[in-house]
Amino acid sequence: MTAPAYAFAGAAGDALLAIEQARRGLAGWDDAHQRITAATRDGLPGDPCGLFRGPPAIAYLLRLAARPGYAAALARLDAHITQITQARLAQAHARLAAGRAPTLREYDLISGLTGLGAYLRVHGGQPALLAQILDYLVRLTRPLPGTAGARPGWWTRNGPADRPDPAYPDGHANLGMAHGIAGPLALLSLTVTDQGPVPGQRAAIQRICAWLDKQQHGPAERPWWPGIVTPGPRPGPAGPQRPSWCYGTPGIARALQLAGTALADQVRQARAEHALAACLADAGQRAQLADASLCHGWAGTVLTAWRAATNARTPALARHLPRLHARLHRGAVPAGEGLLEGAAGVRLAALTVITGDPVPAPPWDACLLLT
């Protein structure tokens, strides 16, 4: 079995586009069903998997489709996802008890428990299991033992590729939405409203926000964040990096905006919206976007800005949207399949920004923790 056939990186990403088109009445369900079948034809892989690969990815598709004929398959998938989640939680708590640092794939959105939590949030029928993930994320935000609070609990001993790397002898802390702490922050913030907080959840949100505040760079009128933080003399970034959903200021700012909403902290929300608006206005940052992709290109930036503008306290973000949307259509559309780096993600973002949300919940981009 080839991995892309069962991941949003491949056929499942195209199935997601077909499902969203059918939900909006722009295409028939037959095409969506054929694409779902193509995404699952190689059978069920085992662990490791996450929201963007394996049973959770296919279950996510079927939940968005919400067709009666998928009920039996969903029940089997959900039983498997429950087993995966419980096993991952047991491993994570054992690691925490031993005082070891995590891997990125333990907790991140793409492969880890944050992604499984994002699926359970869309599922809506397993609040106790979702609460267990939130409890774990609360523990994750506490400092690593023996560091006197100098390193947060999500600090990994690995390099950015999530394996030991001699260039990163003391590891790093990842800030991004895809693989870093912005993903857990977004999930913790969204679920405060969705299902009510678990004990310590608001304090965990505040801890992450306070740490991100310390990592902020740039002048007050143009704040930005790096993708990773390392200890010691290793030089930091010279300036703002690519303004993407996955690692850049847009994804981090959206997570902070959601945190401000969850905490009823209007000052924090306004600061996050200002940071995103300043990023969008910066031609130097925009010039770093090389293609139209959802993960690290124009589609992700435009969709993040659109979602942030929908519940912003000021109109500053909305004023950027027409220009950004026009720029999205001029970007080089990726030739490959899939959601994050393929044409499907670009088309989904454009469709959403043009037409809004004229479909029943959940929105397809709940998997990106933008909403």
TrEMBL record:
One GO MF term, please?
metal ion binding
Give the record's keywords alphabetically. Metal-binding, Zinc
Give start-end ranges for the coiled-coil region(s). none
Binding residues for Zn(2+): C246, C295, H296
Per its UniProt record, what SUPFAM superfamilies does this chain match?
Answer: LanC-like
One BP annotation, GO: peptide modification
Q: Which stretches are transmembrane? A: none
Q: What is this protein called?
A: Lanthionine synthetase
